[in-house]
Fold this sequence. Notes:
This protein is mainly alpha-helical. Helices cover 63% and strands 4% of the residues. This is EF-hand domain-containing protein.
Amino acid sequence: MSQLETAMAMLIKTFDTYAGKDGKKESLSKSEVKTMLEKELPGLLKAAKNQDEVDKLLKGLDFNGDSEVDFSEFVVLVAALTCAAHGRCSKKN
């Protein structure tokens, strides 16, 4: 597999590892997202200045308002964190 195909497979595997522990396998509950972030991105939570900001981030991910993060919403999270962490966010003037 190419590097991009490997990255895509890892996104799916990571999502599937954490989804479904609280019920639905096609989405992550708030607690599943928190567990995933703690295990997969521990530096993110440690760097957060307060828990309210983390909660706000998680709430903002739930585009359809169902109190869960589906795979599409998860991919947006990963992309946003990647852009922010590596200074690749586009700047509109």
